[in-house]
Specification:
The structure holds 2 protein chains of 2 kinds. By secondary structure, chain A is mainly β. Chain A contains no helices and 11 strands. In chain A, the strands form 2 sheets. In chain A, strands 2, 4, 5, 9, 10 and 11 form a 6-stranded mixed sheet that branches. A 5-stranded antiparallel sheet of chain A has the order 1-3-8-7-6, with no helix packed on it. Classes of the chains: A mainly beta, B mainly beta. At the A-B interface, strand 4, strand 5 and strand 9 of A face strand 4, strand 5, strand 9 and strand 10 of B.
């Protein structure tokens, strides 16, 4: 089955700096790659996603890049703010399957 | 507003008891999911359902049971056979067609006392 590895598990950056989280996957048939943000005691919320026919997608300070050849995708957060502190999860959906496989999560801390 | 509601937010279970976690959505989504979240282990799939009256086991189904009698509802029962049930439980839903991200509920924290 699909295997998703997410790195790093924890990340601490200074406010205003950029943060990058990377995920690798194993199944080349995977075709959908969402990122979720989870604040303490809450359910994850979708923040950005990308499909396999696109290499990059940007939404204000957040961007996702996809390298299908290398089977990895990354979340980029620029100009980080204290409210960006949370746990971030990547996920992968295999074409034809109706479920997501999640990475292990990254705890991002923004230091003022 | 459309959304997905989990209840209760906190639940305490005694040893040997079965407990049922509620999940209701008004998004008209066909597919619904239950995940378990433990510290440092990400999200693990318990059960999922793509259509009413049908559901499939996920990666950690042992000790859990579900039903899908209505499109809007997907309750999860944690049985006494689940030896380590203390965890944060998340319900999610998604449209059935095309790959779409999930909409998650706010979760239920279950503690064995």
């Amino acid at each position: 089955g699909e295997n998703v590895e997410q790195h790093p598990s924890t990340l601490s950056v200074q406010e205003g700096d950029s943060a990058v989280i990377k995920c690798t996957y194993s199944d080349s048939a995977s075709n959908y790659f969402p990122w979720y943000k989870q604040e303490l005691g809450k359910g994850p919320q979708l923040i950005i996603d990308i499909r396999s026919n696109v290499g990059e997608k940007k939404d204000q300070r957040i961007a996702v890049t996809l390298n299908k050849t290398a089977k990895h995708f990354s979340l980029h957060i620029t100009e980080t703010q204290p409210e960006d502190s949370a746990v971030y999860f990547c996920a992968v959906q295999i074409q034809g399957a109706q479920k997501l496989v999640f990475g292990q999560g990254t705890r991002l801390t923004i230091n003022p | 507003d459309g959304g997905i509601t989990q209840s209760p937010k906190y639940l305490f279970r005694k040893e040997g008891q079965n407990v049922t976690l509620s999940c209701e959505q008004n998004l008209n989504h066909d597919a619904m999911y239950w995940y378990r979240q433990d510290p440092g282990q990400g999200l693990r799939l318990i059960y999922y359902s793509q259509i009413v009256n049908d559901f499939q086991k996920g990666d950690i189904a042992e000790g859990y049971s579900v039903s899908r009698e209505k499109k809007e509802s997907f309750p999860l029962t944690v049985t006494s056979a689940q030896k380590n049930p203390t965890a944060f439980y998340l319900c999610a839903s998604s449209p059935r067609t095309a790959p779409y991200g999930y909409t998650f509920g706010s979760g239920t924290r279950l503690t064995v006392v």
